Amino acid sequence: MELICNGCSCLCDDVEIIGNEIAHACRKGAEFIRRYKTNRLASPTINGERVELDYAVKSAAEIIKKAKNPAVLGMGSSMLDAQRSAVELGEKIKATVDDFSTHAGVCRGILEREIKTCTLDEVKDNADVIVYWASDASNSHPRHLSRFTYLPRGKNRQKGFEERDAICIDVRESSTIEVCRQFHIIPPMKDGELMKCIMEALDGKVPKSSFLGSKEIIELSNKLKKAEYGVIFTGAGLDGSARVNELKEFMNKLNAVSNFHMIPMAEQCNTRGFSQVLHERKYERTSFKEALAKGKIDAALVLCFDPISEMPLSLSRSLSKIQTVVIDSYKTPMTELSKVAIPCAVNGIEAGGEVIRMDGVKFGINKIYEKDGSIEEKEIMKMLMDLI
Amino acid sequence: MANPFQIYQFLPKTNCKECGEKTCMAFAVKLISQEAKIEQCPYLEEDKKKEIETIVKPFEGAEKTGLVIHDELCTGCGNCVVACPVNVANDPHGVATGRGSKNEKLILQVKDGTVHACDIENCRRFVKPRVLCDVCVVLCPKKAIEFP
Amino acid sequence: MQDNKIELTVVTYDDIFASSFSRDKFGKEYREKAARLSMDESDMNALGIKDRVELSNENGSVVVYASKSTAKRGHPGLAYIPLSIYSNILASSDTRRIKVSASKTEKEVHGLEELLKACFPARN
To answer: B68-146 in CATH: which number?
Structure first.
């Protein structure tokens, strides 16, 4: 059986299940598929007590209706239709909508056509200079280098890695740096400064940085300049270290003398889809963490996401004190601390739908296995919307 | 990467020669290269035997080319699969372009999330003219594949 | 006798082994992969650490497994851990870089159930 894995935003469509064996998927994808039934959220609950689904949905709707400053969170691994429902609801109740993605700026820049981009297939066929900037693809998207960028042979790159350059810029000796022929380890929060230095070098000036030698920066700039088809993959590490304006300025400068594209290493399988939904509906994403820290949130609807694993404990404690509704397939710290928890079918395995890959290409995913009594996220959203 | 000294510390260190080797150190070396078996030493206690087995285990699949895959370190990234020149030659439109493939001549394949070797005697290091190819080693992000 | 303590900067990252088990956060494998600090050998020796370390700062304290780092370059004073609730116990506003005091410990590494009870007492 052939399937599309939704373990990350690579959306590998060459995964097969042959008998009892899962072929071609990486460790993450194989694990998600093999143990999709483990640790499931068994039943709808209110304050940890099991209740009927209708009652749980009704209570959830009450929480949302009564809220004066609600938030809608997560959605990064939800299918497009559930994302659309969630954002539609968010608009209706004037909620803070946040998927916690660090790639919001780049996604928006691409959608607003201010940052040049391309597809992963175009990278495979053409790219001769590949830059992983603040991204540890070998951990977050294991098959990225072998399926799309450095290793494979492409139409105009028949020699594969022998005629490609892979460059990695990061703050530590990551697994991706282990693979890339060229790498630069820089101190944290210095990415914006490095971009400025490269721009100076591209202008023919001698850049002065506090952390890398001028010669190293000039050599890097020359390599970028000579690229026939360059691509920069931006990682989570850029968050707070280089503002979107700086990225745009850098890309424009680079493209005045070379040919570079940018693709965000979107964390979850449909992070890019979420940015697209916001863009279509012209709704702004705002920071939930900032609002929560200021005491400005009184209720939250969370879709297939665990904020507690992503926020400082002090913020999670604040979150545990407000009214929360979680829709998820699995038991997580969030489901255990929420007021109302509603189980849903596993996206991509028990429920099909549409997702958008990190490069903007849309995929239709079919379910692999029949669901065992749970209902799809989009159905739960519909039930909620009908009551609000 | 295991070295014989790690095994030596669990051996009797008497150099009694009953295993067929001149010294315990020589026996340790042969254990790693799969040329000797633990059972050949009549003076090994059970717990020491288990320690040696743990060290030697990754090398059991080494076969003739000495390829070792540390399954617990492998992420299933497929770098070795796509870069392997034997794989590329056998499947130029499948694995060579980064796609998972059912081609039966592949010597490295990702199954259940980690890489597995099969027919590894077709590796360039073994087939004449023997080439010291180390592409799979160099491109592994976790150093899970090696020719020790 | 005062226990030996050293100051470390803990850097969080996305670890594939921890994230592989992220759908079963209450399981043993997740705990073994996520609650694991990758330390420089000299720091481990200075504290006499074998397999566990206690990390604390003004935000709280947590016991995690300790492993020797596989980085080729040494990084004394820096240690790496996957981003998870274990690291978030210690985080101030930046979940990526956290200053802590590290010391040797015999205490157990908590599973998620126990950790949640300890961190969110009001809930139970």
So the answer is: 3.30.70
